[in-house]
Amino acid sequence: MTVVCAGVDWASEEHAVCVLTDEGELLHEGTVRHDEAGLGELCELLCGLGTDRVAIERPDGVLVDRLVAAGLGVYALHPNQVKAARARFRACGGKSDRFDAFVLAELARTDHRRFHRLAPDGDETRALRALTRAREDLVEARVALANQLRAELERCWPGAARIFADVDSPIALAFLERYPGPGDARGLGERRLAAFLARHSYCGRRPAADLLARLREAPAAVLGELEAEARREVVLALVAALKVLVERIRLLSSEIAGAVRQHPDGALFLSLFRDRKSTVTAARLVAEIGDQRGRYPTAEALAADAGMCPVAVESGKRKVATFRRACDKRLRDAVVTLCDSTRHWHPWAHDVYERARGRGCDHPHAIRVLGRAWLRVIWRMWQDCVPYDPDLHGSLQALPAAGG
User: Fold this and answer.
1) Domain that residue 343 falls in
2) Same domain, yes or no, for 290 and 396?
3) Residues 244 and 306 both lie in one domain
């Protein structure tokens, strides 16, 4: 029986396609546009040729979803793997979209056992992934805007940047909206500031007198009348943008909390946290790991994808371990957050982290050591669909006996 393999080199406007038999015979080579007609034509072509395997350099997106929905076996290859394979077929070092499609088809034909066939996650997981990733992007935008606002205040009104701990906190944004420039705060006294704090439900521990002292002790900027007015408008613009972002992040966090509790695997990952309100990191773990158990056949595969395993480089007598850069960076960030939290309160996590530091590991390295250990536990929980139970955690139970 003839096996048909295809390679698709995706692009924003046009995709290159190459289809080969298992003997290497060329069946089709061409391009399709990235529109409804083009994607429909591509799926019809591949299904009509009886394509068994399709190799592509990305694991998600409209194109990938359409190929999977058409019933095709899709294999997502890392760009580094395709880059390393080009030299097998062309010694001159040239590159083109059609040639890359041919390389992908050849890899699907000869090396498919080295790659994993994509298994789409359920609708609940995909929805949770959309929410968590959108929140991450908004948080990144909030941090950038907050840094811009802080830099602007240091140029025109340093005291306003120091009166509260975070310039993007609700109380700080309310203060800057009411007093966007030093001229607006000329009549601000202790009683007026105390009334302002009461109106906005200030929950800090510092009294109004201390905050006012911070405001007045900061150096005063020397600004002309026109520049002062211009910088006042800049502060107001940044505050308005930040208020919208902060509110949207709050609403997304609420949506994520509800979605992760409704997810079939939500209870597994929520059980890892002492505070049941810690829903965002649990949701990110659910979203990035997914619900297809065959995606990570071993705990080591999960740890590698999360960037918690080092990469060994050996040559002769030289053997070193280097940082793993090719990984799911969103999953890595979620695992790092889990580790940095649990090392403070979980006895076993604290022991693993401290022993790594005792061996000379710096903080990031020790976190990765702990992350790899946690992922062994998480993988077992995930495979068995059983929430975390300290009584079943053998290494944790062995700590008192070992004097931990």
Assistant:
1) 271-401
2) yes
3) no
Identity of the amino acid at 307? G
Exposure string over 120-130, b if 16+ CB within 10 A, otherwise e: bbeebbbbbbe
User: Does some domain include residue 266?
Assistant: no
For residue 264, give both structure tokens: 């079939």
Write phi, then psi, for 138 (nearest 5 degrees). Answer: -70, -40
Q: Which two tokens stand for residue 68?
A: 């999977």
Question: 286 with 347, same domain?
Answer: yes
Which residues share a beta bridge with 312?
321
> Rounded to whole angstroms, how far apart are CA atoms 57 and 325?
17
- Among 114, 148, 172, give the residue marking a domain's end: 114
Are 130 and 87 within one domain? no
Lowest mean pLDDT across 66-80, 173-187, 307-321 = 307-321
pLDDT tens-digit series, residues 360-391:
999 999 999 999 999 999 999 999 999 999 98
Of 61, 149, 150, 74, give the one whose Cα is nearest residue 108.
74
What order of strands is seen across the sheet that includes strand 73-76?
Answer: 26-33, 14-21, 4-9, 51-56, 73-76
